[in-house]
Each structure stands twice: as C-alpha cells, then as structure tokens.
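Quick start: what a row looks like.
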Amino acid sequence: MEEIGRNSPCHCGSGKKYKKCCLFRDEKKAAVRQRVVKFSRRDLISGPYKKCPNPKCCAKDSFGVFTPVGSQKDYIRECVKCGYSQKFIFPAIKKKIVYLDQFVISNLIKLLDRSHPSHGAIKSDPFWGKLFIKLEAAAKSQAIVCPDSFYHKDESLVGNIDFRLAQRLYEHFSHGKTLYPSTLIERNQIVQHFEGWLENKKVEFDFNPENIAFERDLHSWDVGIAISVRANPYPGEIDSLKVSNSETKKQLKEIWTRWQTEKDVSFVDRVREETAGLWQGITIAAQRFFQRRALAMKKISSGEAYDMKLEDFMPPTSNDLLENVMRVARSKNVPQQEVGQIILKYFNDIDALLEMPYMRISSVMFAGWARRAALGKKEPPKSTTDIQFIASYLPYCDALFVDKESAQLLKELPKETPSHLRLGEFKAKVFSLKNRNEFLDYLDQIVSELPAEQISTLRDVEGESYTKPYWEIIEQEKKELGI
C-alpha cells in the first residue's frame, strides 16, 4: 500500500481523513507484523562449518551443527545447502563433581556486575578473575559440573544480591543439576542404617553423587541450548527465611554462651553430645508442630482472625523420618507394641549413629565450633548452613570450595581425636581462600587430563574457542530483567 498522508482521504472509502479513520488500526497491524519472526530449521544450524560430505553437494563451509539441547547423547551435523545430515555420538565422559559455596557465587557476581558497590574491590583481587576463567574452561570442557542446591536458593533470597542474578550464575555452572537438601540425605542414610542395625549388619554406604541428585545423569554432555524454568519465591517465602535465620542465629548465640563456659568437655564427648541431640531435635520439632497446628485450628474454629501460614499445617521433615523408620521396623517384623521402644533404643545408640556419614561429619563440625568457643572465640556463627551442606555433600563430591572457617573445622582437629572421627575416608578435596591457588591448579589439572576424543568432539561441536569465558553473563541478565 502506498503511504497515505494523515490528512488524505482514508483508503477505506469512508470519506473521512485517514488520521480520523483507519490510521490507528493500520499502525497496530504494522506493529504486529514487525514482531513476527520468521524461523526455520536452518536457523538452528550454526558453526563451526565444514565441507558438506554429500558427493552431490560438496559445498564449502555449509555442513554445520544442528544446535543441540543440553544433556543429549548425540548431535547432528546438517548442510544448510542440500539438507544432508549425519548423527554423531557423544563419547562417554566422567565429570568431577565440584560444589561451590554461595559466597563464591556472590563474589563472582560482584566481579561481573560492573554497577555493584563491591565490584572494584573484587576486581582488584586477581584471584576472582582467574577463578571465573578456569571455572568456565573446566565447565565448558565438560570436565566438571558444579551442582546447585536449595542452600544456593535460600541464601540468594536473603542476601544482598538480586536473587535472580545469583540463580543465573549458579545455574550456569550447574546446567540444571540440583542436589538433595540435607534433610533428605540424612533421612535416607538413617533409614538405610536403621535397617542394617535391626539385622545387626554393617552398612556400606554408596557415595555415587548421582544418588543425591534430582537429575541423576551428572556426567551428561551439556552443550547447546540450556532450558531453565524459573519461578519467583512464593508469597511469604523470603520473610519466612528471614525469621528462620533470625531464630537460628539466636539459638546459636545461646549455645555459644554455654560452650564458652564448658571448658573441660573433651572433643570426643562433645561429638557424642551432638550426636545424642538428634533424637532431642526430632521430638522437639514434632512437639512444636503439633502445638502450632492445634493453635491454628483453634483460631480458625473460633472465627478469630488468622493469617494462615504453611508451616502451621505442613509437618516437619522429622515426621517423615519417623514414619520411614517405623515402616522399616514393621517390614522387619518388629511387634507393633515394641516399635516405639526399638526406635528409642536406636536413636540412643551413639556409636551406631556415628557410623552414618552425615551424622559423623556434622557432629565433628559442631564439636569444632564448641572447641573454639571454649578456647575464647567470642562471636558465634550466624548460620548452620555451611555445616549442613558440607555434612551432606562431602562424601559424594570430588571437591568443595567453602569458607575458611569450615575448612579449618574439617582439618584442625585435636591430637587425641580417634581415626574414625578424622573424616579421612572421604575422597573430596576441600578448598577455601586459604589454599585458593591450589584450587586454580586443581581446575587446570582436570582440564589437562581430558582424553583427546573429548577435546576433538568439543572442537567439532563448539569450535576452537569453546572455553571462552562468558564475561557478559550478568550484564546481559540485568538487561533482560530490566535492572
């Protein structure tokens, strides 16, 4: 259609001026046409390009890679000229499982976010730039995967960095691989161990990391398009986390004060005390839940104003643990009238409970805190999160990068500590800022040891610059979010 002046007669024949008739409708249609994107299969074919192997074609620089979606077992090359295609199988790979503490993610965001108040300070430390480069090289070489966890999510929701940026970065390195929370790992270990305890058998725990991952295939090829489904926190989630963190901080302060006065308790006795606290924690959680639910029901039935809270009606994870333990007892033909007594006996068998990895690691770390308090450390920790994720993931990971204090708790044990409490049977390498350059060397070594077939496939799918760091990841995310 030829361009019509605003004051010209409208093309519809109404006799009105164009601006008072069809102009608005035509502009709206034009805007819709501009938003329509023409898309074809060819748009999903990209470099690196090669000569087409089809003898009837042989076009140069036309045989490209059909963009794969993450976690595929094969990929396709296709000619943009003749459509000829070939399928190639990804070689089997085995990645190192590396867990990054949330503080590592936070500092990398500060490095990549040019407007963050701490950007200059972080950038001035060469370590963080080197770390990002080497993490990118190792992840894009399919040498490592850095699974995310619910601890990443929870800490990012209440941190001083936009949680959406934190999520973008930890998912970048995890490729959507998420590990179980500590409550689930602890429950599974207890259920397995309780069954062995009933039969008087030694339990051998399987530390395959895929056993604690929601998407079990941790060693898949993660190239091409990654699909992420994100959701905002549910109403009240952030406030609930803040309240929970505040209560934990208060409880730690009270316990810390007690520890400061108990200078004659041995390290081993403290470990056993912490282990004995498992049953106490289970029963207290159950009692508090029943009290909350009863109070909520009372308010509802009386017509009293009540702001409904999910935790008032959702049982604590300890209830699920008890139900599973009772199920095991019944499956082993424990008489119904004896189930409660047997379970109580089990949770008071400290030596048996310390056979479980989660229980032993967490008890040793809590005992380490108590030892520091007795030796004069004034300020208590603010959270138990570090102990939770370390106790959960240490047996399953190849390496963890944690804060300095947590790393010291695992390594600096009293001389009289018996061997079974020294945690030496776990393969994971523990890194912190205290030995940070060793972590950089560790990443370099992993990449240098990759098989030639894996490198060749990477170059075929991603090109020679497949390890190029994505320096713009956070700035691009901010642009897309409009922040």
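That is the whole record. The chain has a mean pLDDT of 90. Strands lie at 45-50, 63-66, 74-79, 85-89, 96-100, 144-145, 399-401, 429-431.
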